[in-house]
Amino acid sequence: MDVIEIGPRRPPLPWWRGRGIAGPIAVALVIGAITGYLAGIRRAETQAHSARPGPHAPTTASVVTAEAQPVTWTGNRCSAQLGDRLQLGVEIVNRSATTATLDRIEPVLPLGGLRATTSAWGSCGQLSYVDAKTPHPLPPGAITWLTITFDVLMPCPAPMPVLFTLTYTQAGDTAISDLGGFPDLGNVPYTRCTPSPG
Hints:
Strand content: 35-45%
Transmembrane segments: 20-40
Distance between the termini: 111 Å
Keywords: Membrane, Transmembrane, Transmembrane helix
C-alpha cells in the first residue's frame, strides 16, 4: 500500500533539537573551554612579560664574606648546681674578621620547667663574671662562655630541653644566632634527680 504525503514538505529539524538538551550543553562546554584556554594563554604571557626586569631594574645579590660570618657555638657546654638553682652555659667563638658586640642571651624553653633568673658572660660556676645586661666585645677569633641561671620548677629537670639565642652587633648590623644547647638535661647532674637503675 502506497502512502502519499499531502501538504508542503517539513524542513529537517536542526541537529540539536533532535538530541534534546544535551546538544546546547555540549556547545556551551566547547565554547567555554576555548574561551578559558585563550584567557589562560593571555594571562601567562602577561605575567611572563611583567616578570622580566626592565633595562634599569636594580638587581640584588647576597655575598657572604669572612667578615659576615655569625658568631657560632663551639659545641662545648657546662653546668653547675647552685643550691636548688641550675646554671647552664655554652661556649661560643667569633670566627669572623671583625669584633662582635654581644648584646643579649636568651633561653629557649620549649617544655618550660625552668625559669631564667640571671645571665652572664662567663663559664659555669665562675665567681667573677660580667652580667649579660652589659654589652660584651668579642674580638676576631676569641672564645667566651655564655651562662644562664635557672630556678628549677620541678623535682627533676632531666627531660627538659634548653637552647640559647644570642643577639649581637657586628659591623653596625644586629644579628641573632641560634646556638643550640641541651636537647635535654638527662646528662646534667642535679641532686633532686634519682639516678636511673642500671
